[in-house]
Amino acid sequence: MFRETPADHLRMPDRAGVLRAAEKIRAILPPTPLLPLEVNGTRLWAKAENLQPIGAFKIRGGWHRLTDMTPEERARGVIAVSSGNHAQGIAWAARELGIRATIVMPHNAPQVKLDATRALGAEVVLYERPREDRDAVAARLVEERGAVLAHAFADPWVIEGQGSAGVEIMEQLGRQPSRIVAPCGGGGLAAGLALACPDSAIVPVEPEGWDTVGQSLAEGKVRSISSGPVTVCDALQPPATKQINLAVLSGRSDPGVTVTDAEVREAQRFAFAKLKLVVEPGGAAALAAALAGKVMLDPHTVIMLTGGNTDAESFAKVITHAD
What we know:
By secondary structure, the chain is an alpha/beta fold. The chain has helices at residues 15-28, 58-67, 71-76, 85-97, 111-119, 134-145, 156-173, 188-196, 212-219, 243-249, 261-275, 285-291, 312-319; strands spanning 34-39, 42-48, 78-81, 101-106, 123-127, 148-149, 179-183, 201-207, 257-259, 301-305. Helix 2 (58-67) crosses helix 7 (156-173) and helix 11 (261-275) crosses helix 12.
């Protein structure tokens, strides 16, 4: 069941906010590399967000969101919902700013992500996925504690923060890319990139059976998935996008595409072999779509590699074809 959260009623994100977020990120973090890559005979670019301090792009939205909290809000703490990467982004920012962070995480989130979130000082509250409604768990905690909700993809500050990656891409390329192909869960990164690069086509890539954003864009309204198939892309399976993301992406996004687990694993192997990078399943979804010939490519295309938070044993199985 689609459930609205307080984030749905906040202000709309805009490009000015993305540019302000980029200045804030620039002050604390170096830009991630934009690496040359050849895919199916086309030379293009890969943005290595898996090399962020927390191993994922989510540090951007977390920092922009928490640094804009008022002193009174910071005193009340922050609550977020995440399978791991947004959790670490919020926990990292909260640690730096001295804010209490509580993260609602699925019981079956990768252990490496659970451990990393706790190591950053956040309290982790587990919920049973898919039996429990994660937004309902977070809403209850917000009400009990009076804390601020930092939604993983529907918060306007988070959207703007993720868009700072697009500002970096433009600075590195010296122009707006023709197309940005991005892994997509709820649509926070895709929306942020759409605001950052208004002349670029944005291509959201979702796991097969979890294309809530693609379906919502096609139908012009928020669509939810009550129970999708098992996927290796743990970071890309929210039950629904939100109206705020749909509003930004409508008319701005190319048709979304989906990828299979097999295509994702092949992309992980490709990134390791060609770029010497460790990329987690969800972080490799955009590359998977490119390798499978599901998106148009040209020399000004940018592929987002969004995360590298996977454990050594799982990754070893993937690259040795033992998965």
